Amino acid sequence: MTAKRILIVEDEKAIRDMIAFGLRRAGYEVSEAEDCRSARAQIVDSRPDLLLIDWMLPDMSGLELIRTLRRAKDTEEIPAIMLTAKVEEQDKIGGLDGGADDYVTKPFSPRELLARIQAVLRRAAPAGGSDVVEVEGLKLDDSSHRVSTGEREIALGPTEYRLLHFFMTHPERVFSRGQLLDRVWGGSTYVEERTVDVHIRRLRKALEPFSLERLVQTVRGSGYRFSTRES
Ligand code: CA
To answer: Residue 223 in contact with residue 177, Cβ under 8 Å?
Structure first.
C-alpha cells in the first residue's frame, strides 16, 4: 500500500513542523503550505489524499479555501479537516457547512489528530471495488440498484435512490439544496430548489418504517446531511 499524502496548510511554522513530524512518523507522506495560494499550487501539482487546513491564514481563510476547492470538479472530493483555535470554536459548525469533513480544536494531541485523520480517510476510501455501501444496517447495492435493511427491501423511486446513494457516499457533510441539485440532478435541467425538499420527504417516508429516516437530517439554514450522529 502506498502512503497516503497529506497537505498541511498552516502559517505558523512551529505548529506545521509539529504536525508534519507526527504524521511522517505515522507513515504519511507530508507536504506543507504556509498560505492558500501555495496550497492551491501544490494541490494542482499533485493531488493530496487529505488536507489539514488552519482556519486563520494570511491570504484568505481556510474556510474560503475549502469552499473554493469544493466548487471545482477535480478538487471537490478531497477530504479536509479544519484546524481551529478555541476562540473560533463557535464557527466550527460553519466550517462543516462550508465543506470541511471534520475539525480539530487547538491545542490538540497528535493522537487525537491521527484518529480524526484515519476516520476521515476511511470514510473517503472507495468501498474496495465493491458497489455496496452500508450504514447502520442500511445497505445500498449499486450494481443491482437495491436498497435493503436486514432481509427487507426498501422500495425507492429513481430520484430518491440517487439521492440516497449520494448521501451514503458523502456522509457527515452538509449540502445546500443548490449543491444537491448540482450533484444529484446533474444541474443540467431546470429544477427548483424546493424539488429537493419534496424528494427528501419521499426518501424519509420510505425509510421511516425501518426507523432510518433520522439519518437524513435537516440542517437549519444550510440544507441536508446524511449522518449517524444525533442531529
Ligand atoms: Ca494561522
So the answer is: yes
**Within a domain: residue 231?**
no
For residue 184, the enclosing domain spans 132-226
The CA 13 to ligand 1 mean position distance, Å, reads 9
Q: Is 161 helix (H, G, I), strand (E, B) or coil?
A: helix
> Does an H or E element contain 40, and which?
helix 36-45
**Per residue in 68-100, pLDDT tens?**
998 888 888 899 999 987 666 666 666 666 778
Quote the pTM value.
0.59
Ligand 1 centroid, distance to 52 Cα (angstroms): 12
How much distance in Å is there from the Cα of 54 to the middle of ligand 1?
A: 6
Structural domain count of the chain: 2
Count CA atoms closer than 13 A to 198's CA, side-chain side: 8
Distance CA 206, CA 176 (A): 22
- Ligand 1 centre to CA of 19 (Å) is 13
